[in-house]
Amino acid sequence: MKRTTILLSALVLAVFSAGSAMAATDDLDIRRLNSSLDQLSADPVLGGYAQAEQARAREAINQMAQFKPKDKEHAHYLYIAERRVDIAKAMAQFQDAQSKSAQLDREHDSILLEASRLDAEMARRQLEQQRAQNQMIQEEAARLQQQGVEYSQALDQAKAEGDKARQVAAAQAKVANAAKKQAALAEAAARAMRDASSSDGAADPTPTPKKTKKSSNGN
């Protein structure tokens, strides 16, 4: 009887120990998976991603916790929980990569936009410079044209004044020639008059009156 009692006690202890070991194993799997999810959710970079996947992983862990390690469903839900934890990690990393890629795309677009803006600004400045140069060229051309007109007018005026001066000189020359001719004619007339006067004096001298002889007796 005593021996039977000892064996029964040993059997109960063995069963209890096995149950404790199974419970410990069950708790270890749960703690391992929960710890993995906690690390993911606490990660400053990845924690904000894959929220739906993290929730499904915790749900799978909770479903697994409803079964004992010896239950058939336990292994099934353990596999599902592990896979969902892995999926949550992978999805968080993927979403982080997508976010970084999108950020790079935005930065690239911003760089392109800034480059386009700079190109447009440079093109605008070049256009303004070209317009200013064209304005300067047009103003210089207008100035040269006006200067040419003024030179042409001055040349025409000088030509007209030259023609007028030549006309005046020609008139003065005519007057001088006429005066010379008149002087020559006057001199010739005066000479002719002098010659005529000289000729008249030699041909008809003035007669000298004769003296009357007195008689010897005074009569």
Bulk shape: rod-shaped
Percent range for helical residues? over 70%
State the low-pLDDT regions, or none. Answer: 1-25, 215-219
Radius of gyration: 72 Å
Number of strands: 0
Task: Tell me what you see in this structure.
This protein is mainly α and 219 residues long. The protein has a domain at 21-118. It is built from three helices and no strands. It has helices at residues 2-42, 51-65, 72-203. Helix 1 (2-42) packs parallel to helix 3 and helix 2 runs antiparallel to helix 3 (72-203). The longest helix has 132 residues, at 72-203. The protein is rod-shaped, with a radius of gyration of 72 Å. The termini are far apart. Residues 1-25 and 215-219 have low confidence and may be disordered.
SSE arrangement:
Layout: H1 2-42, H2 51-65, H3 72-203
Helix pairs in contact: 1-2, 1-3, 2-3
Features:
86% helix, mainly alpha, single chain, 219 residues
Please sum up the structure shown:
This protein is mostly helical and 219 residues long.
